[in-house]
Design brief:
- The protein is built from two helices and no strands.
- The chain has helices at 5-16, 20-44.
Length: 45
């Protein structure tokens, strides 16, 4: 099972001590990428 992008970025932020602003932007980008990937996967099925 894949982790939700927000959870993943939160874990990364805690693990590497990233500042919150970077973590927030990373979350939005990873969520966007995740949605695009799901869209293409659904097209291929």
């Amino acid at each position: 099972a894949a982790l939700p992008p927000a959870l993943t970025s939160t874990i990364l932020a805690i693990k590497y001590g990233l500042d919150e602003e970077y973590a927030a932007s990373f979350t939005s980008y990873s969520t966007l990428i995740f949605l695009v990937l799901m869209f293409f996967i659904s097209l291929m099925l």
